[in-house]
């Protein structure tokens, strides 16, 4: 096959890794949406709470970096969590431009209920623990590789 001719099978939807990951992400989101209803959280709110349960108090900027969310997406999430009594947002005394976020007592207590979720989600995957860990590590390596590069100009550049 010449370099200027594309293998048409590469353009089949079922052959796209991006679509496989997209479909898996949507399936996970649906699973979490149902599981998180009893906690009164959306999936993005759950991710914010995970970061806060892990780190305690964090700046909005740090939360956004950890979750790969911009401030336009994160700010409404934090406002809803605060309105629900799960977090407190405060301007930093040292730098008024900086806002820190920490869980309230109710937000911290929610962690105990949330602790059951990973086991339920794990069971839903049909994978054993070693497979889940391997898959997570491989997806993390993929993410790091994609973060470190840009899309090649042509399939010949894929090496």
Mean pLDDT reading: 90
State the end-to-end distance: 15 Å
Strand content: 5-15%
Q: Could you give me the name of the CATH homologous superfamily of the domain at 42-104?
A: Winged helix-like DNA-binding domain superfamily/Winged helix DNA-binding domain
H and E string: HHEHHEEHHH
For the largest sheet, list the strands in their spatial order: 1-3-2
Looking at CATH, which topology of the domain at 42-104 would you report?
Answer: Arc Repressor Mutant, subunit A
CATH architecture descriptor text of the domain at 42-104: Orthogonal Bundle
Supply the number of helical segments.
Answer: 7
The first-level CATH class of the domain at 42-104 is given as Mainly Alpha
How large is the radius of gyration?
20 Å
Describe this structure in words.
The chain has a 3-stranded antiparallel β-sheet with strand order 1-3-2. It has a domain at 42-104: Winged helix-like DNA-binding domain superfamily/Winged helix DNA-binding domain (Arc Repressor Mutant, subunit A), CATH 1.10.10. The protein is built from 7 helices and 3 strands; from the N terminus they run H-H-E-H-H-E-E-H-H-H. The model has no long low-confidence stretch (mean pLDDT 90). The protein is mainly α. The chain has helices at 17-36, 43-55, 60-67, 71-83, 105-114, 117-125, 129-147; strands at 58-59, 87-91, 99-103.
């Amino acid at each position: 096959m010449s370099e200027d001719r594309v293998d048409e099978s590469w353009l089949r939807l079922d052959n796209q890794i991006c679509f496989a990951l997209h479909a898996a992400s949507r399936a996970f989101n649906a699973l979490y949406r149902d599981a998180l209803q009893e906690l009164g959280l959306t999936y993005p709110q759950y991710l914010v709470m995970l970061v806060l349960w892990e780190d305690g108090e964090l700046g909005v900027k740090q939360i956004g970096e950890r979750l790969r969310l911009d401030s336009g997406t994160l700010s409404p999430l934090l406002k809803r969590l605060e309105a629900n009594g799960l977090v407190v947002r405060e301007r930093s005394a040292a730098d008024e431009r900086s806002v820190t976020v920490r869980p309230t007592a109710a937000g911290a207590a929610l962690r105990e209920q949330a602790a059951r979720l990973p086991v339920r989600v794990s069971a839903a995957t049909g994978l054993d623990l070693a497979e889940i860990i391997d898959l997570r590590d491989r997806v993390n390596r993929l993410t790091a590789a994609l973060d470190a590069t840009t899309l090649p100009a042509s399939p010949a550049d894929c090496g």
